[in-house]
Design a protein that fits this description.
Blueprint lengths: L2 E4 L2 H6 L10 E6 H12 L8 H19 L1 H10 L10 E2 L4 E6 L13 H13 L2 E4 L2 H9 L6 E3 L3 H6 L5
Parallel strand pairs: 1-2, 1-5, 2-4, 5-6
Antiparallel strand pairs: 3-4
Helix pairs in contact: 2-3
């Protein structure tokens, strides 16, 4: 059985261990986070502190963009974009990792406390009853502070999240 996580697309480029889980996982990715990849890839602003790491991450972002732009994958993604909260058919990355793109709609439900992408991640987690995975500790702190009813894990606890029985 595949474990499902809600995640931003850029995290797959930044955190390589997410592509090598010990058990099968499915990542649900809000479409707006894919659009964000293009901005990050072309931005002169560094993503990582170390120049070598930054170059590598930008290369990985480029590969992820190319993956999403492959004709077959692009058609699957476009299918999800036809209706609000539509999900793409599975996009397999390897034997343990599958992606699904979600056309998440930010309804501003959490607009005062969270930015639009964070809101989409929260709403997707609620709708899909899936664990949210992030590398933003302040995001997790705000989830707790505002009593948002989602389960969230820091990327550093990824293997625990995969192994554990932590259904929302």
């Amino acid at each position: 059985m595949s474990k499902t996580f809600i995640i931003e697309a850029v995290m797959l480029a930044v955190h390589g261990q997410l592509m090598l889980p010990s058990k099968p996982v499915t990542y649900l990715i809000p479409y707006t986070t894919i659009q964000e990849l293009y901005e990050l890839h072309s931005s002169p602003e560094p993503i990582m502190l170390e120049q070598e790491d930054d170059g590598f991450v930008k290369q990985m972002i480029g590969e992820l963009i190319a993956f999403f732009e492959e004709s077959f994958n692009k058609k699957k993604i476009e299918k999800a974009l036809s209706i609000p909260w539509g999900k793409s058919p599975p996009l397999p990355i390897n034997e343990h990792v599958t992606l699904k793109i979600v056309y998440a709609i930010d309804n501003e439900a959490y607009g005062d406390q969270f930015d639009p992408i964070e809101t989409e991640l929260i709403l997707t987690s609620l709708k899909e009853q899936a664990v949210l995975l992030t590398d933003q500790f302040d995001f997790i702190e705000r989830l707790v502070e505002y009593a948002i009813p989602v389960e969230a894990f820091d990327v550093e606890d990824f293997e625990f999240a995969v192994e554990g029985d932590n259904e929302v």
